[in-house]
Amino acid sequence: MWEALMAQPAGTVWLVATGALTNIALLFSTFPEVVDHIQGLSIMGGAIGDGFTDATLGHVEGEGERFGNETRWAEFNIYCDPEAAQSIFSNAVLASKTTLIPLDLTHKVLATTAVQEQLLNGTAGGPGREDLVLRQLFGDLLVFFART
Question: Does the pTM of the predicted model rise above 0.85?
Answer without folding.
Answer: no
